[in-house]
Amino acid sequence: METVLVYAGRASEEWCQRLATAAPEFRWLSDVEHPQATAATVFVGWNPPPGWLAGLPRLRLVHALGAGVDGFLARTDLPPEVPVLRLLDAGMAEQMTEYALLGVLMWQRRLPLYRQQQMQARWKPWPPRPRGEVRVSVLGLGRIGGQVATALAGLGYRVAGWSRSARTLDGVATRHGTQGLDALLTETDVLVSVLPSTAETRGLLDRARLARLPQGAMVVSAGRGDQLVTRDLLALLDEGHLAAALLDVFETEPLPPESPLWRHPAVILTPHVAALTVPEPAVRQVVTHLRRWLRGETLPAVVDRRRGY
Ligand code: NDP
Ligand code: OXD
Question: Is the Cβ–Cβ distance between 205 and 230 less than 8 Å?
Fold first, then answer.
């Protein structure tokens, strides 16, 4: 019987019980002090404390309880030969679509401008912006971003998308590569980033790229915070080139109290909640993946460590 160690902070025991109920053929443990813990061959969880995985000498597989694995790949206690699996959508794409839509509607219905007018007690209506004229660009067209882009296109927005390799998506004008990005930015009213954090995406949205967005554009950042250069974003907001930003992810989380983002009038921020892990589909997926792994079958959720996602 394979032993699986589970860690999810204060929710470790709850996750452990859910997983044990769904797959009793594994021995599930959430207590690292348990005498059997060092026998664990599999780790399932999120953000274990630094050094934690070094206590598992027989570790052969890691399954993240999330979609982005940059945190796992940056660890020094995770041997490079141990495969890392991740969640594939598992209920997160729908939430991310809602989050993106929130940003798109803010821009479409001119909420940042009406907010400014409200502060000045100014009553001034503006003409409507038809959906078909709102240009939304989604960066990252994977399990989550792909669904965000097609859902927004289905609602009637003019959607473009960007990925590393060439992709085809119904109703979405797709581009890839650096040149593809530069061209796409000039035709974007609302930029939605759902990219993973990798060596290639870190610092991607800097002043030069953000300045390519048309005057008055808006940024929605929900992939990883290190893609967006905060000081460049703030400068472009202060200069009035960008209208607003809806931010869910940050280079340092929790966002430090001294960050100017907290109090900037054109920024709305949320504490990394754009798409939370949903227990039922996540448990189903983890169990399916572990059973396939046990049978020696091909796994669809293995992270490519060289690519970084
Ligand atoms: P996927 O791995 O399925 O998709 C990643 C997408 O990003 C792919 O389309 C990929 O291109 C593209 N991409 C990666 N690197 C580059 C690059 N250098 N240039 C252009 N495109 C690139 O990931 P998911 O869709 O499952 O998740 C995406 C990210 O969303 C996660 O990594 C995580 O960081 C974030 N996330 C945030 C949450 C939140 O609550 N804020 C919740 C869940 C996830 P290609 O198609 O060519 O491979
Ligand atoms: C994830 C996240 O990657 O929560 O799942 O950001």
Answer: no
pLDDT at 31: 85
Q: What is the pLDDT of residue 306?
A: 94
Q: Is 224 a catalytic residue?
A: yes
pLDDT, tens digit, 9 for 90 and up, residues 217-261 = 999 999 999 999 999 999 999 999 999 999 999 999 999 999 999
CB 236 within 8 A of CB 207: yes
Strands of the sheet containing 190-193, edge to edge, are 172-176, 158-163, 135-139, 190-193, 217-221, 242-247, 267-269
**pLDDT value of residue 276:** 98
pTM greater than 0.70: yes
DSSP string, 204-238: -B-HHHHTTSPTTEEEEE-S-GGGB-HHHHHHHHH
Q: Is any atom of ligand 2 closer than 6 Å to the C-beta of 142? A: no
Q: Ligand 2, residue 92: give the atom nearest the CA.
A: 5
